Amino acid sequence: MALVTETAKGSAVPVEAMAPTTWQRWRYRMKVASREPTTLIGVLTALLFTYLIVVPIISIVLDAVRVQFGHERRLGKDFGDLTLYYLDRAFLSPVSVDLFWRPLLNTLSVAMGAISLSLLIGTVLAWLISRTDMFGRRWFATALIVPYMLPAWTFALAWTTLFKNRTVGGQPGWFEAMGLTPPDWVAYGRFPIIVILALHYTPFVILLFGSALRRFDSQLEDSARILGAKRYQVALQIILPLMRPALLSSMVLIFAKCLGEFGVPYVLGLPVKFEVLSTSLFRSIASRQTGVAGVVAASIMLIGIITLMIDARLVREARRFVTVGSKGSMNRQSRLGKYRLPATGFAALIFLLSVGLPLLTLFLSTVMKLPAQFTLDNFTLDYWIGRDLHTVALQTGVLLSPDLWAAAKNTLVIVGLASLTSGILGLLVGYVVIRTPVKALSVYLRQVTFLPYLVPGIAFAAAYLSLFAVPRGPMPALYGTVTILILALIADQMPYASRAGISAMTQLGKDPEEAAQIAGAGWFRRMISIVIPIQKGSLVTGVLLPFISGIKGLSLFVILAVPSTDVLTTYSLRLVDYHYTQAANAVVLIIAAIAYLGTLAAQKLTKTNLAEGLGS
Amino acid sequence: MPTINLSGAQKNYGVNSANAVSNLDLEIRDGEFMCLLGPSGCGKTTTLRMIAGLENLSDGEIRIGERVVDSVRAGVFVPPEKREMGLVFQSYALWPHLTIERNTDFGLRLRKLPKEEREQRVEKVMQALDIAKYRDRYPSQLSGGQQQRVALARMLAVNPGVLLLDEPLSNLDARLRLEMRAELKRIHKEFKTTIVFVTHDQWEAMTLATTIAVMDEGTLQQMGTPNDIYDRPANRFVAEFVGSPPINILTVGSPAASELSRAAEAFLGARHPSLRGIGSIGIRPEAIGYLVNREHVPAGSFSGEMTVTGVLPTGGSWILELRNDSDTLFLTTSALPHVETGSKVSFFAPPEALHVFDKDGQRITEADALLRKNMLN
């Protein structure tokens, strides 16, 4: 076969010696690219995302090294000149310990604690769910994921409701009320933050580790057993090495999430001045230290980017381990025998601790006048629907308060508009990325829309504040408007929206569209009659999932929202600040209910698995 | 539909990558049933997609009649939706959100035909392909064979001048495949369409095509009628790709040549001096006969003695594997062989059954005449 080199005798036309000139090639390519709006749309979206994502990030990094408003006199330089003052202040000066180093150490210790604890619980639960004959496996498989559907600081509020002590004013916690004063280390700071974050992120481990376990082919175990390996040898030499990528990946993800976590350390850390990077950033912004805020935000971004690059590397490594899955890949269950009941009990206990107890506590706190006093006359619905209450502000139950409905309306408008926009943009990006003949455009769009994923929400919000707080060029100052919230949310949600769009377009493949093209349909006709109708389902997911994560999101809003643009999350946080505990808890319950039901609806509607919505 | 002409058509993905199709000249005449045949990755599907306009060229030109539809040098590109062709995808690519009727109707709606005419044409083509009873179903509710017919109907409804088919039968089971082959032949007659058909299955090509174009590594190897391709392969690739069990090849003229190769070379050299030192010869398995008794071997044939090492029944015919120290020959016979493995037999092949290739693997056409003349003597 290798002998054949020349074209056979059938071809009559002589070989043209000259290749087409560069100009001819370029003209032809332009002709092909310009006959459809795909490339044009690609260029426009690329410009939009450069402005919404890249420019704010650059802006905040520049803030860190340029003289900020109000510091001209002290630094003897003009506004906007280059300076190392803020870097020096955040990293080297005497106050750097409070501004950066201690928060960094606290962040690391909290993250490590949360990772260890959630790995410990999560791996056991994942194994019980996916490889054993524990009772109610199917039910637990869904139930144990629920903590992740609820906002993390739901648990923080439940914790304070239970453990709050006399260090802080306002209504006392239940234990305090019963006469048992919890020590500070139980009530606030590192310990409760670790426990809560661990419970909140355990679903990560269950999902990632569990799916790796399920994909693990029992025949690999069997082969080792047949060659004479003992059970523990199989576990150590075969299973563990193959599970390592999944474990490392969930560790890295939890770390990245902890880095940007704001609500939990804000609620539980503030009373004892326990600061992590996100709360330190918040404080810098609140006290108008824009330069230092720039340094801290850039640091958080840098740590986030490094972490997720490590994760990307691990995922690549993991691919080497992908064993050829065949019909033979079996998933055999271990019999627990006499441990079957205790194992089920363990899973039930974790469910109670991470879902049942917090929600019940929150709920009871909203219907009881005095904490921890379980007498009938102590129960009331006043905090929900009461009127003419004798309080300074909020004289009605929370459901009757116009502020709640204003916040709810804001949430719906802001989050809804942002999700709708990002869902549509995501599908467009997916279409361009898959279809454009201009490869550079496809690569750029894919990467730029993924960028916000690497940047914790709080740092991203700070970046938006830095860019849009003052008028720049044709853009008026946007701080305090609904627009800035919507823009920031769109940008923040693009990683998920564009990923959903790209995967939907990849799954669709070229064929249905090409078939329409052959049948004579031009671009717009194909979009309207073929692409959009087929992608209806993924468009709904692409809107719904960001909507849910937007509703429970806090870190973006806490920096960008002002009282007039309050959404449900910031409204409840404001209530916490004013010590209207019952009302705050009620709002949080409402958010949790929306998030939970929304997730269920999204699943039902699109028949997708929870694991796929994991990133949001 | 006028003749479709590809001249110097070339396709590569990126400047430095190898050509998927290089310098291809192809002419598809009106009413032809042309098969593009070749192993996977030979560029046949790319060629089909270039004709449809779904793949743009890196160099060269495509003409339909006198009209240039695609040319890098002239900067012309007519998009697929304006080429008025039909294409049936390997995956069928039915639109999952439309019923069978709407799938079939899609192209007609785009052409803004009056309602009555549309209904009439949809009805006709659905009847012809026997899918009228599924008109309200969705593609996912049909079997593979039925989906296949819908994909065909959808394209036939607009009555395209050319119907392009990309391995449309490869996803069907053996029985359906046979039915659809007959169906395609009937459609070709009934609708009088030009058909270009891509396949890697040589029997499909043989049974369907009026012309076969064999491709390998992006270049055209041979174009001709099915009989041409089989009886007069233009080079060793075509000879070895077409035919099952594959043709026996003896490489001659090298110092390390085997016993049988030297015998073959001597045989050819004795016929005519110009046949000395050629590259290789090929003999199709069914052209070889065998005898237990050496004396009955016909005079003037290429023959020798070998040991039977395998008798493989294939249902209705048998493959015999013959060996000596350094060679293996396969022959097929339709009569029950009365030989045991291990026994010695004489094989023989008439001189005109020998395909002679030069050192580059190209067929030496002059040899055909020489070998045939010898037979007459």
State which percent range the strand residues of chain A make up. Answer: under 5%
**Cα radius of gyration of chain B in angstroms:** 25 Å
Low-confidence stretches of chain B are none
Shape of chain B: elongated
**End-to-end C-alpha gap of chain A:** 54 Å
> Order of SSEs of chain A, N→C?
HHHHHHHHHHHHHHHHHHHHHHHHHHHH
Order of helices and strands of chain B: EEEHEEEEHHHEHEHEEHHEHEEEEEEEH
Q: Tell me roughly what share of residues is in helical segments of chain B.
A: 25-40%
Q: End-to-end span of chain B in angstroms? A: 50 Å
Number of helices of chain A: 28
Radius of gyration of chain A: 28 Å
Mean pLDDT of chain B equals 89
Class inferred from helices and paired strands of chain A? mainly alpha
Range of helix content of chain A: 55-70%
Q: Tell me the number of strands of chain B.
A: 19
Strand order in the largest sheet of chain B: 7-8-9-3-10-11
- Runs of chain A in which pLDDT lies below 50 for 5 or more consecutive residues are 1-16, 323-328, 610-616
What does this structure look like?
- The complex is a heterodimer of chains A (616) and B (377).
- With 616 residues, chain A is mostly helical.
- Chain A contains 28 helices and no strands.
- Chain A is globular, with a radius of gyration of 28 Å.
- The relative contact order of chain A is 0.12.
- Chain B is α+β, with helices and mostly antiparallel strands and 377 residues long.
- In chain B, the strands form four sheets. In chain B, strands 7-8-9-3-10-11 form a six-stranded mixed β-sheet, sandwiched between helices. A five-stranded antiparallel β-sheet of chain B has the order 2-1-4-5-6, with helices on one face.
- In chain B, helix 2 (100-110) crosses helix 3, helix 2 (100-110) packs parallel to helix 4 and helix 3 (115-128) crosses helix 4.
- Classes of the chains: A mainly alpha (616), B alpha+beta (377).
- At the A-B interface, helix 1, helix 23 and helix 24 of A face strand 2, strand 6, strand 7, helix 2 and helix 4 of B.
